[in-house]
Write a structure and sequence with these properties.
Blueprint lengths: L10 E4 L9 H28 L6 H26 L6 E4 H34 L4 H4 L2 H17 L2 H8 L8 E2 L6 H7 L5 H34 L4 H29 L10 H22 L1 H13 L1
Parallel strand pairs: 1-3
Antiparallel strand pairs: 1-2
Helix pairs in contact: 1-2, 1-10, 1-11, 2-3, 2-10, 3-5, 3-6, 3-8, 3-9, 6-8, 8-9, 9-10, 10-11
């Protein structure tokens, strides 16, 4: 075995974007702006929902959960990434690296579950409108949201335990801006076959299962919308789904672009990673603010009252 074994007492060097010295200032400014807009935009949605009685519905309850996920996801990555600018990377301990990896994977899983629950909520609202408030009562909404968070936080535990037991040799340098599991496996001098299988099985199962459930919900939703006689009724029904559907395509499109491609290219996927770590969280509040009529009215009302 060559090199020094990297165990829980060691450190990794996260390079971030240090290989682009001429871009340090514009990238730092752009990422600070993205982080601030993500926080402000999502907190604004949360505050607007909880301060307006007309928005106290299951759809907006799940939207606030999505906003919490986006804030949490960016907070797991951005502070340490920003700290690495204007220097040749940033050092992170093995334990901190595994912690970051765990909570990144957890927040992504929670996002998938919340998006799936939101699709189910729209399915009930449009396909079973008379039973909507009975089916999607407060207890059910709390259970669905809690289950999404608990399952998301539990899901990466197997990956984290398995990664804690492997050895890292020769290179301690992470050519990425966070501790991505695909990059860490590249640095290991131990067999990572078990972790790779676990990652592909669990990742594919969660991603594809939630995606299939969302598509199934929307097939039924579209079928019900097409049965509505009036054009106004069809437009109103579809408008309640437009924001969520846009976010679904944004999130899943970026995930598929980043991970559902040849394994040989996964060790340097910084640009594609930015799509779901930076672009999706900052776009979600913008999408809902622009496409959701009730939320736009509530935002304008809050602005005028202030």
């Amino acid at each position: 075995m060559k090199g020094e074994n990297q165990n829980s007492s060691g450190y990794f060097l996260i390079l971030g974007f240090s290989d682009l010295p001429e871009m340090q200032v514009p990238l730092f400014g752009a990422f600070v702006m993205v982080y601030l807009v993500t926080w402000v935009g999502n907190l604004l949605i949360i505050a607007t929902v909880y301060s307006n009685a007309q928005l106290q519905t299951p759809m907006y309850f799940f939207l606030t959960n999505l906003s919490f996920v986006d804030i949490s996801l960016t907070t797991v990555i951005f502070p340490r990434m920003l700290a690495g600018f204007f220097q040749e990377g940033t050092w992170i301990s093995f334990t901190q690296c595994l912690t970051q990896m765990h909570f990144f994977m957890a927040m992504m899983a929670v996002e998938f579950y919340i998006l799936t629950v939101m699709a189910y909520d729209r399915y009930i609202a449009i396909c079973h409108p008379l039973r909507y408030m009975t089916i999607m009562n407060h207890s059910v909404c709390m259970w669905l949201a809690s289950a999404s968070w608990v399952m998301g936080l539990i899901e990466p535990i197997g990956h984290t335990i398995a990664m804690s037991k492997i050895s890292f040799c020769e290179s301690h340098t992470i050519n990425h801006f966070f501790c991505d599991i695909a990059v860490l496996m590249k640095l290991s001098c131990s067999s990572t076959l078990t972790i790779e299988l676990l990652t592909y099985i669990m990742g594919t199962l969660i991603t594809m299962m939630s995606f299939v459930l969302i598509i199934t919900s929307y097939v039924n939703i579209i079928s019900s919308i097409l049965k509505i006689q009036s054009d106004t009724g069809r437009r109103k029904a579809f408008s309640t789904c437009a924001s969520h559907l846009t976010v679904v395509f944004l999130v899943y499109g970026s995930i598929f672009a980043a991970y559902f491609r040849p394994a040989s290219t996964l060790s340097d996927n910084r640009i594609s990673s930015l799509a779901y770590i930076a672009i999706a969280p900052v776009c979600n509040p913008v999408i809902y603010s622009l496409k959701n009529t009730e939320l736009k009215k509530a935002l304008r009302k809050n602005k005028n009252s202030s």
